[in-house]
Structure formats: structure tokens, C-alpha cells
Structure to design on (297 residues):
């Protein structure tokens, strides 16, 4: 039987061959693989054309391997078994979430919210490990191999090829240090001209009334917080950014009841896939569960 020109090997045909050879039956192999007997027969014929030799002797009573079939079986069967085992042992095939999770997030989220949440999550799922990219730069999740992004969008997100889940609303409160308030008193309104104001640049127009201007603008909420702690003025920032310093007594909430809420918020984004990996689904569910129990915006 002359060999056909080389074609890409078909793993499915090799799987059929190994099953038929092990069971000495087309019918039993087809049942095991969930295919028809005729489909199995065509796969073996295609494989025989490819190798240029008869692999299985067939008669009405039994199926037996030829010399070429024995040689192919001895070379192929162990590798197919090893491949199947490797796939079964992948983290995504385990019953519990496991494996490396690559996450990108903004500096404010990465430096204030995520450390405690990742610590709590790993108590629940210790087999999941993390590779964090903390930056305010927007990255290409697919192109750079990230599993998840946590992003703020003051006006919401445009249509995207990514899966998007809302984590929380974008809400800003106002905070100042006890020393600053002792020296200057509490502000009476947002933009009170008797006070120094610190604002996050992308949200400055929402924080500051048109008649007033911020004395310091910055593009990082952690800097805004640290300047307020250093007695630099009254700062607008998300509650979750301010909360550690409020708990420590280094910041005080002012203008209670005057929080600002935008139409956007914080979002979880991840590449759309046929099946979300367990590690990713578990972490997203954990974040949403936490923020429902303890809203941080």
C-alpha cells in the first residue's frame, strides 16, 4: 500500500486505533469513544493510508494487529496515555481552584484593597497563586497574558470583547487629617474657599464646583490620601482608599452625607472564553461576595 503525502497527524485517528487494538473490536472501541462503528472504521482506514501499511487484520470474528500495527501501538499508546494524564492533571481539571492567576489593577486598588482580599482568598483556596501587575496603565489582557483586570471607569465601560462584571459603584467621600481640621476647622461645603482641596485629576470636575479649583491635582488616589494624611488639605477619595487611615486615626471623614456618585464604578474584566477557569471564577465570585457584604465605595 503506497503511503500518501505527509499530512498533519490526527490524534483522534490514533486514539481510535489504540482503542480498537486494545479491545480487539471496532464495536467496543466505538462505544467507548462515543462514535459509530463506521466512523471508527473510516478513521483506521485514513490512518493506514497515511502510514502506508495495514495496521489491523479484520475478519468476521476478530480484529488483530499486523506487524506494522504492533510497532505503531508500542510507540503511540504510552504517549497518548501520558497526554491524557497531563490534561487530567491540569489545574483547571482539578475539583478545587488552583494554578497561577495573573491580575492587573490600578495602583489605588492594588495598594489598598487587594492585599487583604488576596490574603483572605488564599486562606480559602491555598492552591491558587498570584502574579500582580499594579499600574494605572491599561494593558492588553489577551496580548499580555492576563487572566483578570480590575479597572475604574468613571462613566462606565464601552462595549468590549471582554467579559465585564461590575464590582462596585464609584463613590467619593471627603477626608482630612485631625491636625489640619484643628488648625483650619471643618469645611462647610465642597470647594469651601477657606480650605485647601486635593483632588484626583480624572474626577476633579465632579469633586470641585465650577466656582472653585483644587489646590493640588494628582492622578493617583494613594498620593491624594498621603497628602491629606500629611495635613495637606481636604481630599476626595473612595472610602476604601481612606479607610485604613481613618481606622488608624490619621484621617477623619468630613462633609458626611455629601458623597459623590458617578454613573461608572469599578469593574472586573477578563477574556471571554467558552469556560471560565475555576481559579478565575472563584476569585471573581469572592470579590463580588466581599463587596456585597462590605461595600467599599
Amino acid at each position: 500500500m503506497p503511503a500518501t503525502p505527509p499530512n498533519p497527524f490526527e490524534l483522534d485517528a490514533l486514539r481510535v486505533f489504540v482503542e480498537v487494538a486494545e479491545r480487539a473490536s471496532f464495536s467496543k472501541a466505538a462505544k467507548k469513544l462515543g462514535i459509530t462503528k463506521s466512523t471508527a472504521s473510516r478513521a483506521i482506514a485514513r490512518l493506514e493510508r497515511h502510514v502506508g501499511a495495514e495496521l489491523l487484520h479484520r475478519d468476521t470474528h476478530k480484529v488483530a494487529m499486523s506487524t506494522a500495527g504492533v510497532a505503531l501501538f508500542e510507540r503511540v499508546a504510552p504517549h497518548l496515555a501520558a497526554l491524557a494524564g497531563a490534561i487530567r492533571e491540569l489545574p483547571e481539571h482539578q475539583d478545587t481552584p488552583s494554578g497561577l492567576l495573573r491580575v492587573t489593577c490600578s495602583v489605588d486598588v492594588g495598594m489598598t484593597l487587594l492585599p487583604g482580599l488576596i490574603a483572605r482568598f488564599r486562606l480559602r483556596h491555598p492552591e491558587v497563586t498570584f502574579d500582580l501587575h499594579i499600574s494605572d496603565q491599561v494593558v492588553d489582557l489577551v496580548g499580555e497574558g492576563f487572566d483578570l483586570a480590575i479597572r475604574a471607569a468613571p462613566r462606565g465601560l464601552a462595549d468590549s470583547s471582554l467579559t465585564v462584571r461590575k464590582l462596585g459603584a464609584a463613590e467619593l467621600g471627603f477626608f482630612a487629617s485631625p491636625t489640619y481640621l484643628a488648625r483650619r476647622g471643618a469645611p462647610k461645603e465642597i470647594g469651601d474657599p477657606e480650605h485647601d482641596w486635593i483632588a484626583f485629576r480624572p474626577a476633579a470636575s465632579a469633586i470641585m464646583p465650577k466656582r472653585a479649583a483644587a489646590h493640588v491635582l494628582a492622578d493617583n488616589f494613594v498620593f491624594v490620601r498621603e497628602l491629606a494624611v500629611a495635613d495637606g488639605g481636604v481630599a476626595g477619595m473612595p472610602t476604601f482608599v481612606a479607610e485604613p487611615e481613618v481606622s488608624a486615626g490619621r484621617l477623619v471623614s468630613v462633609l458626611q452625607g455629601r458623597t459623590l456618585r458617578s454613573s461608572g464604578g469599578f469593574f472586573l474584566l477578563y477574556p471571554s472564553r467558552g469556560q471560565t477557569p475555576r481559579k478565575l471564577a472563584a476569585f471573581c465570585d469572592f470579590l463580588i461576595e466581599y463587596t456585597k457584604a462590605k461595600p467599599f465605595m
